[in-house]
Backbone:
């Protein structure tokens, strides 16, 4: 087992620094598009098609963000995905913490840019409807994040032979599907960094725990299920490879 010193050294190596930058850039692209689509929908009156617009924006932006950073940082763009990778042993805890910092800073900057450049338009935050409980919302966020992280594991596993372009597309599609299904209930965040940036700029952290606890539990379950039950490394008789990670 690597010592703490070697882990710390690895976390500040040039390849690691490039990973943090790649995560920052890709997360910024994703959150900028996601928040921008939400702001635009509300400015246009919040029509019935607003969920579809946000779903497409998130799916397109996430596909691009994962594609351009996959070979550098693994294309997480999401603290929950990073947490799942850490649970699965594909990234060290020290690097995971630095990934989270990069992702949250990128989200914060994206929200600030939108709020500033759109003449102080309100940045929509993720909220729980009055008819729902925080527990129920956390369960929904956890289930959606489970689907997302499981898709990330499956689409980035070299043993499955998924193409470099197909993997990011699958990740984008599952997020788009979840937004179409659950946006009216929880906002379909699936991304603690996105929720954090919007909440900080929006000025309220009400129900913020929903968008951390649910996704982290869902991500952990997806990592454990994929790596240990459904597609364990020991079951692979052809290759000893695992999920692509940092």
Residues:
């Amino acid at each position: 087992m690597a010592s703490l010193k070697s882990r710390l050294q690895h976390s500040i190596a040039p390849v690691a620094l490039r990973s943090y930058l790649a995560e920052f850039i890709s997360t910024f692209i994703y959150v900028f598009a996601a928040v921008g689509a939400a702001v635009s929908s509300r400015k246009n009156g919040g029509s019935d098609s607003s969920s579809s617009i946000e779903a497409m924006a998130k799916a397109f932006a996430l596909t691009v963000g994962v594609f351009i950073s996959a070979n550098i940082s693994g294309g997480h763009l999401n603290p929950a995905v990073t947490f799942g990778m850490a649970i699965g042993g594909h990234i060290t805890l020290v690097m995971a913490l630095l990934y989270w910092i990069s992702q949250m800073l990128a989200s914060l900057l994206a929200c600030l840019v939108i709020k500033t450049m759109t003449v102080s338009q309100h940045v929509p935050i993720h909220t729980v409807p009055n008819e729902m409980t925080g527990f129920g919302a956390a369960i929904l966020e956890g289930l959606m994040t489970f689907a997302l992280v499981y898709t990330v594991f499956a689409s980035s596993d070299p043993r499955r032979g998924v193409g470099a372009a197909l993997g990011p597309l699958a990740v984008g599609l599952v997020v788009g599907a979840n937004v179409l299904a659950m946006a009216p209930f929880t906002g379909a965040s699936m991304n603690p960094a996105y929720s954090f940036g919007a909440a900080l700029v929006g000025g309220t952290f009400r129900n913020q725990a929903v968008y951390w606890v649910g996704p982290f539990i869902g991500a952990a379950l997806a990592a454990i299920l994929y790596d240990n039950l459904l597609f364990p490394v020991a079951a692979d008789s052809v290759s000893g490879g695992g999920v692509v990670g940092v």
